[in-house]
Amino acid sequence: MTRPSRRTVLVALAVVAVVFALVSVLVVQRAEASAQDQQDARDDAAAAATDAIPRMLGYRHASIADDLDEATEVMTESFADQYSELTPQLVSTAQQRQIDVTATVRTIAALECGQECSTSKVRLLAFVDQNRTIAGKPGSPAALSVVISMKKVDGDWLVDDLTTS
To answer: Which has the closest alpha carbon to 53: 112, 155, 126, 113?
Structure first.
């Protein structure tokens, strides 16, 4: 058996090095693209939530039934069903006491997702200011922290859950 020449060994090592470098570049590019896709998803979900929260947590007593019904347009079907279960009591109270509520998102950011990161589901933390008027008189303002789960459905980010404190 003959030994491969030094030149053959060097050429083989060079080919292996080039293949390794190409594979490494592809792996890094794929990881960066995935991270960018996840960041884009978080940004898009935060923008949708910023628009949805005032609709869900604000209303006018004169149009509350319509306001709450329209708010379900920014929700997944399952969350809209849960939300709608609460509306009859809220409608009655708001109309009787002439309560108007405005909600403003002060700041919002994605929560750390760890190994559960996704481009179709995002959890956010928002700080929301709520102002009320009762029979035309200013009520006490409320500062809320809201954890909101967003889900991408048919290309749109929808509220899938909301918890306030």
So the answer is: 126
Write out the two tokens for 91. 């409608």
Give the tens place of pLDDT for each residue, 6-36: 888 777 777 777 777 777 666 666 656 577 8
pLDDT (average), residues 84-93: 92
Residue 76 phi, psi dihedral angles, 5° rounding: -65, 160
The three-point CA angle 128-129-131 to 5° equals 145
Q: What is the CA radius of gyration of the chain?
A: 26
Q: Which residues of 20-52 are buried (b: 16+ CB within 10 A; e: fewer)?
A: eeeeeeeeeeeeeeeeeebeebbebbbebbbeb
Residue count of the chain: 165
Q: List Cα–Cα distances, 164 to 30, 96, 129, 148, 154, in angstroms.
A: 37, 24, 12, 9, 27
Mean per-residue pLDDT, 38-58: 96
Report the pLDDT value the prediction gives residue 33, as an integer from 0 to 100. Answer: 56
* Sign of the torsion formed by the C-alpha atoms of 59, 85, 149 and 120: negative
The confidence score (pLDDT) of residue 9 equals 74
Query: Helix, strand, or coil here: 63?
Result: helix
143, pLDDT greater than 70: yes
